[in-house]
């Protein structure tokens, strides 16, 4: 009785698996709530705020990822967020206006834009769907728009079970002429 060799068809298919989880930035996430700087919980007083900015230990944000919000329904001028960003920038890995979800989206977007799309040119790419870390939907949108112009095909899921997202149209250059 002859035994047949078992062939891993996924391995020989030429499919490239892209795991967005590998782009996760491991740094600490911090939510900076400007409500703590409000006078009587209602308004931001410029003089007090500037004093705070001078005396605060900004080095504690070294390498961290910071989302800036105001959780109170208060009058906070735009320049206040700008001043915070300027103070945080030399220390923090990333600074965003918004909640922790907005921060996560930015971290993934930054990592995706560091990828070289030409490495995927003409390839069949599967973007993995299951991760141990939470990958925001925005990252899947971002990777789709980055890869669509260069890939042969784009799929979602696992190489053995995919959902087709995009397939490059066949070239019409091979059509015959009369």
TrEMBL record:
Record-linked Pfam families: DUF2480
InterPro entries, per the entry: DUF2480 (IPR018914)
Name of the molecule in the record: DUF2480 family protein
Species of provenance: Dyadobacter flavalbus
Taxonomic lineage from the root: Bacteria, Pseudomonadati, Bacteroidota, Cytophagia, Cytophagales
């Amino acid at each position: 009785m002859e035994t047949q060799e078992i062939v891993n068809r996924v391995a020989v298919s030429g499919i490239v698996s892209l795991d967005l989880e590998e782009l996760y930035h491991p740094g600490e996430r911090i939510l900076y709530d400007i409500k703590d700087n409000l006078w009587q919980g209602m308004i931001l007083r410029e003089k007090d705020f500037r004093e705070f900015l001078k005396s605060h230990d900004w080095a504690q944000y070294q390498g961290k990822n910071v989302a800036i919000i105001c959780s109170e329904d208060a009058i906070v001028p735009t320049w206040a967020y700008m001043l915070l960003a300027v103070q945080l920038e030399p220390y923090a890995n990333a600074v965003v206006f918004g909640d922790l979800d907005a921060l996560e989206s930015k971290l993934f977007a930054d990592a995706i834009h560091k990828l070289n799309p030409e490495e995927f040119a003409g390839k069949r790419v599967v973007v993995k769907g299951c991760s141990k870390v939470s990958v925001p939907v925005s990252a899947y949108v971002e990777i789709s728009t980055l890869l669509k112009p260069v890939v042969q095909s784009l799929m979602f899921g696992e190489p053995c079970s995919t959902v087709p997202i995009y397939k490059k149209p066949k070239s019409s250059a091979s059509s015959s002429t009369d």
